[in-house]
Amino acid sequence: MTESPQQKLHVAFASAEAAPFVKTGGLGDVAGSLPQALKAAGAEVVVLVPKYDTIAQEYKDRMEHLCDFYVPLGWRNEYCGIERLNHRGVDYLFIDNERYFSRGYPYGFFDDGERFAFFSKAIVETLQHLPGVLKGFTCDVLHCNDWHTAMAPVFLREFYQASPFYQNIKTVFSIHNIAFQGQYSAKVLNDILGLAHIPAAAFQLTCGPDAVNYMQGALNYTDAITTVSPTYAEEIKTGEFGEGLDGILRRRAPILQGIVNGIDTVGFDPATDQRIPAQFTAGDRSGKAVCKARLQEELGLEVRDDRPLMVMVTRLTRQKGMDLVTYALDRILSGGVQVAVLGTGDTDYENALRYFEGKYPGTMAARIQFDPALSQRMYAGADLFLMPSLFEPCGLSQMIAMRYGTLPIVRETGGLKDTVAPYNQFTGEGTGFSFANFNGDEMADTVFRAAHLFWDDRAAFNKLVDNAMAADFSWTRSADVYMAMYHNLRPDIPLPQPEVEVKPTEKAKPVEQEKATEPEVAPADEPAATAVKKPAARKTTARKTTVAKATAPKTATTKATTTAAKTATSAPAAAAKPATANPAQAKIDLDAVLPTIDPKPAATPAAEPKPATSTTKVVPKATRRGKRK
Q1: Residue 323 class from Cβ within 10 Å (0-12 exposed, 13-18 middle, 19+ buried)?
Q2: What is the pTM of this model?
Q3: 587 assigned to a ligand binding site
Q4: Mean pLDDT of all residues in the chain?
Q5: Per-residue buried b or exposed e for 603-616, using 16+ beta carbons within 10 Å of the residue's own CB
Q6: Which residues contact 348 (CB under 8 A, 6 or more apart)?
Q7: What angle is formed at CA 164 by the lines to CA 163 and CA 165, rounded to 5 degrees?
Q8: Which tens digits make up the pLDDT trace of 146-185?
Q9: Distance, CA of 108 to CA of 123 (rounded, Å)
Q10: pLDDT tens for residues 441-464?
Q11: Annotated domain spans of the chain
Q12: Level-2 CATH architecture, domain 8-262+578-623
């Protein structure tokens, strides 16, 4: 039996960029891949992205205009159009306002604070229009990413949650890089955000009285916080990595969770990748030897299979460990390891790499450029991949390298520690090599540990390659964790049932037939145990629970449990503050000088929501240039 639309979890995923439409970093990869995995896991997902003028015309030509309205922003009323494009089964909704988004680049403008405050407000306003234009899509969870969307949870709670339509919407905020927080002049608090009625300290604890911090606002208001790896989630609670937000994150630690990103395992597949000289698999890596020889030839290196080739595809910055690299390159190159680096960044690092290329011809190659095609060939042709980051929230390059049978050498920080299992010489286990301290000599020692394994024990080295290529870095695994988190926020919506779990329910008929001949078996116990004991268990258990409920007869135990569950989850939600909240009425948390927010999800009955009473006004598309009303 298929699920009714009301039973599906509806997720609105908001991001300032999404591949393939616009991408400047890892955030674009996440917004381009995770929503598809969530849909495959059973959620109904829409993605909200600004409609930048840099989006390729081929995508713009396929967009469908859904609706338009005005968005209140401080004393302004700004035009907002919604354009839809279905990509790989997911609806991407583009927020259209030419005044804010017709720029040559997504970020880096004097009015970014206003631009992305508008984007955040437009996200929340758009939600109430979706039931009428997207087949009854009613948002259950709003998932925001990085500072560009950080004000959406704040706006929702302060201006909208008094409306029945918004009362049951839960918010998730994901930190992809805590170093970028969105700090702007304190004047925007009233002039743009319209939030003069709440304590300014909700946005200013980390940046002083003359500025506001968008990310800090999200951390204080959201219902759940995620970041891109478990280790990074622990690191950002410390003063060393927290960038001033560590105190807030420690206070909100019960709702903070680290979930490792995935990669596009279809796009990054050496068995089918047409961008590399020869395809290969874990079982037949003869094509990888061809890729290595071609890469050495292309980069001007000696074509030798007996020398390990170590590559870097990176930004040339201190955060990526370039201090360690320039310090240790002499020792590494003179020791017989070939090195190739692709990337751009700080001029000092670029010049240092050029120097080593001249000093070690045939052994060192520096390509100071941005070249995605070459990066693909480097992933496929190298033996080792160096990633000695000072800090790394998650990192994708090390996972891509392993996918292509290239062993990573990483520093144990953030997502690098979570995704690379260090080589154990006694058991042969591991998927790469790692070192703990931000130290050039320690990094070089680890490089030579890998090189000597390549030279002295090729069988053990190849076993590591097998392990690396077998590692699962698909988005499916990550999506399952996100779905469990969404379910914790909205327990009134059952986890979806994958098709593979339907088969056990078909065997329920023989169980029913046994009741007449063997009453001692008490066949009702099994459904009752499934339905009663496991409603809050892990994802797969919860799904089987839903199946059992759908097919097994209700027993007295089941009914009693259902009644108790309804009683426990039907407490009416506390009345949310209206848009014109009185500052004196706001509850203050003296530890953080913030509005008090209950981190536990309120399991309000999922009544059919009614559209919010909105001050928005539908306007002709002719005003899409962002003229104020």
Answers
A1: middle
A2: 0.76
A3: no
A4: 83
A5: beeeeebeebeeeb
A6: none
A7: 90
A8: 999 999 999 999 999 899 999 999 999 999 999 999 999 8
A9: 21
A10: 999 999 999 999 999 999 999 999
A11: 8-262+578-623, 286-470, 496-510+534-570
A12: 3-Layer(aba) Sandwich (3.40)
